Amino acid sequence: MQLSPSVTIARCESGLEYLQVNSPLCQARIFLQGAQLTEYTPANQKPLIWVSSEEDYQEGKSIRGGIPICWPWFGVHQNPEWPIHGVARVSLWRAEEVKEEQDAIRISLSLPMAQVDKTYWPHNTKLEVEYVLSDKQLEVRLTNTNLGDSPVQLTQALHSYLPTPDITQTSVDGLQGAQYIEFGEGPFEQQEVVHFGRETDMVYSDAKPLQRIRTPDGTIEVARENSRSCVLWNPWVDKSQRLSNFADDEYHKMLCLEAANVLDDKVELAAQQSHTLATIIRWG
Ligand SMILES: O=P(O)(O)OC[C@H]1O[C@H](O)[C@H](O)[C@@H](O)[C@@H]1O
What we know:
This is Putative glucose-6-phosphate 1-epimerase. It is built from 1 helix and 24 strands.
């Protein structure tokens, strides 16, 4: 079904629905499950988003790649039985609006709260995401609004999977000076540009709002708004073997740099207040 001149809605083999953008500005794909973007390629440039070759797009299962939306908690909940990274990434979102402007396509989706089990999220809030897709950059804006009368707290992340032709020749600049915890230890201070040679799972607090990832294919810039924390992840050899929908050697070809609100940077919403977490990703 055609939604606008450049945006159609279609279904993949396993049955999941997605919005497909085929525009002179870019190519992109956003699944309704999780409101998860799995493709963004600006015109005449290389893809900026990575998805596993083993992904089979099953209902109720998180897609390995793209930008999973982790909400209303990031990582393992204090009740370890609850799903890691919350429930938004496996819930069915609703497409709200597609707007084509001269230099960008705006797509917004919302998560109907009826989709969310009240055990996990008993609060009266609204959750929306807007994708702004141009020929230069991808912008993702995740807005929480507290519709209730009492304050609400949450943690969250835009868990961006980014491509590299070779992780051993990839580095991340712009985290120097930030504190991080890793595998439950720390805080440590990031002294240098980050290189990859082992499992990496760093949760940074108070990181600068822009990082540059240098890969043999070029520099990827990842900026954040209303986010002091971010997560840098590569599963390396052993964890790759344990991950769902992930080939054993795929850690060579990806990394995640995730715009987050975690640790001391959790979102605290007073009654009727809104907060927008954003990440902006582009070739530098
Ligand atoms: O396998 P998932 O539930 O998608 O989680 C994938 C990864 O997400 C984040 O980056 C966490 O920091 C990692 O510890 C976790 O392994």
